[in-house]
Amino acid sequence: MNRRSAMLCTAAALLPLVTGGCAPSPTAAAGPDAAATATPSAQSWIVVAAGSAQPKRSASPAARTSPSSRTSPSSRTSPAEPGGAALSSPVSVPAARPGEPQCVKTQPQGRIDVALVRPGRTTATVTWYHPGDPAVVAYRVAAVSQALVVGRQPELSWTVVEPGKGCHELTATISGLRAATPYVFTVNATRIRHSQGNTYNVTVARSRAVVTAP
Questions:
Q1: What count of Cα atoms within 13 Å lies in the side-chain half-sphere of residue 58?
Q2: What is the pLDDT of residues 9-46, one digit of tens each?
Q3: Which of 19, 138, 203, 204 has the fewest CB atoms nearer than 10 Å to its CB?
Q4: pTM exceeds 0.85, yes or no
Q5: What is the pairing mode between strands 113-114 and 198-206?
């Protein structure tokens, strides 16, 4: 047999192996130890499975907000005015007490305190509290009769009292009253309206119905 015939026979013997598939790996016959050190065959297939979307993991409680990034109560911003300026928080003013000449407290808007009255027969002493409001320049006190009067009502007679400085109780003596007659005593404060440069009156204290002595 010449060399060309030998090559044709060898090719014929290898053709079934090529068309039938991959030849067995030598590592299969060599055992487990040989499989660990053998080089992978160039004809091996890599199978890739289709993946799926993984759910998004939420951050741990410690990583959500660190203590340093939280806003402290002292650094919070007050609500802003329409112009952009921050509004300051209201300041708590302690209640003024009699005998404290330096105390200054603004009379609350719309608040009417109770005026105390000690009635006589034709006079009465009215007592109320002045909080030291510097906007109050005077107080006016009047006795309003609760007796039924038909026709035109009598004009009120006002007694004016200057408040003075500091916070203290004020008193006014009202005269010209009728005996055995019920009265309600009202106290008005005359305040300065700085925006317009004038004054206005507002009721700040009022008594219950009090009957003068017979």
A1: 5
A2: 555 555 554 444 444 444 444 444 544 444 444 556 66
A3: 19
A4: no
A5: parallel
